[in-house]
């Protein structure tokens, strides 16, 4: 532990909880480029522009699959980090609560068994 009761490890779980879904959303939007281009096909008019967009989409498709796989892996990893840290937190909470119950069962919270919480010699 660091100084003044603060943990050395801080994980922004509230931010990480949404990270996986945000990455998946990026992947879904990224995969819709062809549909977006096609939706404007009639508005563009010039065949050269349409051909350029088709070329872009074709080239983009090659790299998009790799990027999509990486986004999936990052999203899964983010979900796993959140899941494991929540499990760790639950396990540590249970361990502390169990230790407190055992200590209270021995006659007190102070650790010297007198129930007054004194803690020993002064």
The strand count comes to 0
Fraction in beta strands = under 5%
Question: Helices and strands: which structural class?
Answer: mainly alpha
Specify Rg, calculated over alpha carbons. 28 Å
Distance between the termini: 26 Å
Give the count of helical stretches.
4
Structure report:
The chain is mainly α and 122 residues long. The chain is built from four helices and no strands. The chain has helices at 13-30, 33-39, 41-44, 47-105. The longest helix is centred in the middle third of the chain and has 59 residues, at 47-105.
List keywords for this structure.
72% helix; 122 residues; 4 helices; single chain; mainly alpha; disordered C terminus
SSE topology:
Layout: H1 13-30, H2 33-39, H3 41-44, H4 47-105
Helix pairs in contact: 1-4
Summarize the structure.
The chain has 122 residues and is mainly alpha-helical.
